[in-house]
From TrEMBL:
Superkingdom to which the source organism belongs: Bacteria
Name of the protein this chain belongs to: Uncharacterized conserved protein
The organism's taxonomic lineage, starting at the top: Bacteria, Pseudomonadati, Pseudomonadota, Alphaproteobacteria, Rhodobacterales
Spans through the membrane: 52-78, 150-172, 178-198
Keyword vocabulary terms for this entry: Membrane, Transmembrane, Transmembrane helix
Pfam families (UniProt xref): ExoD
PANTHER family recorded: EXOPOLYSACCHARIDE SYNTHESIS PROTEIN
InterPro entries membership: ExoD
Length: 201
């Protein structure tokens, strides 16, 4: 994992993440190790947003893909909670690959999502994204990720959890407390969906 590259957010941070993903998707296959090399092993937040973005894309239909994304989110968020200096992920996650063609299709569909997040996120409601609340936001991201493998069989649940992580991550990246509220509202929906599905079953 590279330490040389570091991620410096621009005025359109989520769009920039999608742009870097698009560059990576030009290869025959893309692994999580490639993503970490592209952003830098100290860029916890942008790297965590990558699986959150991908799990709301059509790639979530690949068997066990949502579980891998969820575990990745949980591992990264947990290291953010304990203020680890450098990102570490197990080989079974970093070596997992997606075909470049499928990745390009997914990235194309994510541009509108990235554009919306960048357009509406701004610095506001600071107490929600500064200490000590910031740690609680990171913990919520960790719990969302950890829940994904258990909800693999529930339609849309992983994508909804991924959307919650996207809102919460964007909140931390843009220092936008309103997006914490969006994330919590989305998380509430993710809790309700399995209850409805299992009640129907």
């Amino acid at each position: 994992m590279s330490e040389a590259n570091t991620y410096e957010p621009s005025e359109h941070p989520v769009g920039e993440i999608v742009d870097r993903l698009d560059e990576l998707a030009g290869a025959s296959s893309v692994s999580l190790a490639d993503v970490i090399d592209a952003f830098g092993s100290r860029s916890f937040l942008p790297v965590m947003m990558v699986p959150a973005l991908l799990v709301v894309s059509p790639l979530s239909g690949i068997p066990f893909f949502s579980s891998a994304c969820g575990l990745t989110i949980a591992f990264i968020a947990a290291q953010m909670v304990i203020s680890r200096d450098q990102l570490w992920l197990p080989d079974f996650l970093t070596k997992r690959q997606v075909e470049g063609a499928r990745a390009r299709q997914a990235v194309a569909k994510l541009r509108s999502v990235a554009g919306w997040l960048d357009k509406h996120a701004k610095n506001r409601i600071g107490p929600f994204v500064t200490a000590p609340a910031r740690k609680w936001v990171q913990i919520m991201c960790m719990l969302c990720g950890a829940a994904m493998p258990f909800l693999e069989i529930v339609p849309f649940s992983s994508s909804i959890l991924g959307a919650a992580v996207l809102f919460l991550s964007t909140a931390l990246l843009a220092r936008d407390g309103l997006f914490v509220i969006f994330g919590l509202a989305t998380l509430s929906t993710a809790i309700i969906v399995p209850l409805i599905v299992f009640d129907v079953i």
